[in-house]
């Protein structure tokens, strides 16, 4: 930023006549100073609410915004159109102090207000060039200002000539939230941000809830989109066991323990098949595996219909395999044959021990089996449902074409910069959307923890985030389970290079823990009191005076606030080159001719 003084006497509009910790008041010596004028080709607007001004102090200068204008009581009675142009009036106004800067080095910002203007300090209109340089430098350290990537985001609502070019680091470095009611312009803002980050060669993944960003698929920087349930699937073995529990909702007393035991048994069966004919496991025939003890085949595990048959069988060989491969078996992944799960649960419905031989499991327990009937039905309903088969690939291999984790992994290794994950065709049954988004977040979380994005950061966009976050799964039998991988990303992944950007029309439905981690807020129109309070509580830089503008913002207008922004900025987001498919359907005129019955005909009808 140039160190040329912003205090130009031709921009003078008034003096400070009152100072409080919250605001200062300005006195205009003449109403003429409030009018717009041109100076060296720049159109300067004088006394308008929302205008930026600079105040000359002794050691510091101050940047402020006009919040309120009024006339003294005695002058209001004399006000008319003619008198305002011919007679001297002396308006006053209220100014919010946004930041302070060194008077001889204006580029050096002091985020705190350690001092305030004095009575009699001069107030000047802020030139567009002066404030533009501030926007560009927000959130960027001095040594990085020359090569920091920026996004040409918008312009000031009251002055289209003052563009708002923002540092990508300031926008996303502490995560970002885009909030606003329907029709406020969130989708266009997301499109504009995606355009900016991909042009800066930043890897970007977006969960597209409704398919409205499909136009990006045609661009050269975009990887082929993944249409879940159409040409793409999330293989169930990449789900965590906790995700599977959310899908199946076992009750706590009997069904949950039996489900866990069935999963353990099927994982052991997978190990038997994949580690066969080694020094430990030998396949005797297709229904029997033997476990070596001291080099001898002494104990057997019986297989029946692709399940482990336990009733009246020895426990020891089963436990030996478990202890040998405990890390694989106790992993959170659902790496087993889910098609055999219902039958394996039947095999688990046995007494814990045989009363005649304590080394064996007991006989079938019909009470446990009866208690598990509803769980078995839910499993069969899930596994044999064509919609969920196309979504979770129950009959597919983990490495088949279209598997989402493979697609994400390949995308990260390519030169493409955008991957759109389309949730348009994902149903709402079994809370599949929430589970899928949580599973995707969990994968990215683990990749971030492995330092994969440290040198090449990735931005993770989630549109309509209220559909996916703050989801607790609970019914009268199933205990509450949190789907919290996105919350974990917000809390810990900034230092790993994984940045989150959520968009929602209902910020009150976003968990407080997640919302409070958002360092940047782009707030479009908000009307609901709870939504406004959610933003106010989460954003420390949001003053009540600034948030008062939220209900009256027009389409595309937004208030930009954040940790790296010393002051809130009211702006109009520039129209993106690639627009989303978010327009409201129009009603069409198609009049139908009605058979109108005349009064005399109506009487005839009644008589008949």
UniProtKB/TrEMBL annotation:
Source taxon at top rank: Bacteria
Keyword ATP-binding carried by entry: yes
Keyword Lipid metabolism in record: no
Single GO molecular function: helicase activity
Stretches assigned to the Helicase HerA central domain: 152-302
InterPro entries listed in its UniProt record: HerA-like, HerA_C, HerA_central, P-loop_NTPase
Keywords: ATP-binding, DNA-binding, Helicase, Hydrolase, Isomerase, Nucleotide-binding
Residue ranges constituting the Helicase HerA-like C-terminal domain according to the UniProt record: 458-570
Family matches, as PANTHER family: HELICASE MJ1565-RELATED
Protein name: ATPase-like protein
């Amino acid at each position: 930023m140039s160190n040329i003084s912003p205090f130009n006497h031709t921009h003078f509009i008034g003096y400070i006549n009152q100072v409080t910790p919250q605001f200062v008041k300005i006195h205009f010596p003449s109403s003429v100073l409030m009018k717009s004028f041109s100076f060296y080709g720049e159109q300067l607007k004088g006394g308008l609410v929302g205008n930026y001004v600079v105040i000359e102090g002794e050691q510091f200068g101050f940047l402020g915004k006009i919040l309120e204008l009024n006339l003294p009581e005695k002058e209001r009675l004399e006000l008319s159109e003619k008198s305002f142009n011919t007679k001297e009036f002396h308006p006053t106004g209220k100014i919010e102090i946004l930041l302070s800067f060194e008077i001889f080095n204006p580029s050096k910002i002091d985020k705190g207000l350690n001092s305030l203007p004095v009575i009699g300090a001069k107030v000047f209109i802020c030139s567009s060039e002066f404030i533009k340089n501030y926007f560009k430098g927000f959130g960027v350290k001095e040594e990085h200002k020359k090569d920091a990537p920026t996004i040409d985001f918008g312009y000031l609502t009251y002055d289209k000539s003052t563009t708002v070019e923002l540092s990508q680091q300031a926008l996303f470095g502490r995560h970002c939230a885009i909030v606003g009611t329907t029709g406020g312009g969130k989708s266009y803002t997301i499109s504009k941000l995606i355009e900016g980050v991909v042009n800066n060669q930043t890897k970007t993944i977006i969960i597209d809830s409704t398919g409205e960003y499909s136009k990006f698929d045609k661009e050269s920087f975009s990887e082929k989109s993944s249409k879940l349930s159409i040409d793409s699937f999330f293989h169930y073995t990449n789900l965590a066991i906790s995700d599977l529990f959310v899908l199946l909702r076992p009750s706590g007393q009997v069904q949950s323990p039996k489900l866990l035991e069935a999963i353990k048994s099927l994982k052991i069966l997978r190990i038997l098949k994949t580690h066969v004919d080694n020094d430990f496991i030998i396949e005797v025939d297709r229904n029997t595996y033997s476990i070596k003890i001291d080099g001898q085949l002494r104990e057997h595990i019986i297989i029946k219909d692709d399940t482990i048959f336990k009733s009246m069988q020895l426990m020891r060989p089963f436990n030996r395999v478990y202890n040998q491969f405990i890390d694989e078996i106790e992993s959170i992944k659902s790496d087993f044959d889910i098609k055999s799960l219902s039958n394996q649960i039947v095999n688990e419905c046995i007494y814990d021990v045989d009363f005649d031989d304590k080394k064996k499991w007991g006989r079938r327990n019909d009470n446990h089996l009866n208690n598990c009937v509803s769980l078995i039905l839910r499993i069969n309903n899930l596994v044999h449902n064509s919609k969920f088969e196309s979504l979770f690939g129950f009959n597919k291999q983990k490495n088949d074409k279209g598997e989402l984790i493979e697609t994400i992994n390949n995308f990260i290794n390519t030169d493409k910069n955008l991957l759109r994950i389309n949730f348009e065709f994902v149903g709402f049954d079994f809370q599949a959307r929430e589970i899928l988004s949580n599973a995707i977040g969990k994968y990215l979380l683990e990749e971030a923890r492995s330092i994969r994005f440290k040198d090449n950061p990735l931005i993770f966009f989630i549109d309509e985030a209220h559909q996916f976050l703050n989801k607790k799964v609970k019914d009268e039998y199933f205990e509450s389970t949190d789907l919290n991988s996105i919350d974990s990303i917000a809390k810990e992944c900034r230092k790993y290079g994984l940045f989150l950007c959520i968009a929602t029309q209902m910020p009150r439905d976003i968990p407080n823990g997640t919302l409070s981690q958002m360092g940047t807020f782009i707030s479009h129109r908000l009307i609901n009191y709870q939504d406004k309070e959610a933003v106010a509580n989460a954003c420390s830089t949001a003053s009540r005076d600034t948030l008062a503008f939220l209900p009256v913002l027009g389409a595309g207008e937004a208030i930009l606030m954040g940790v790296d922004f010393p002051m809130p900025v009211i702006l109009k987001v520039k129209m993106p080159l690639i627009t989303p498919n978010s327009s409201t359907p129009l009603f069409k005129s198609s009049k139908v001719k009605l058979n109108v019955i005349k009064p005399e005909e109506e009487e005839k009808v009644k008589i008949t």
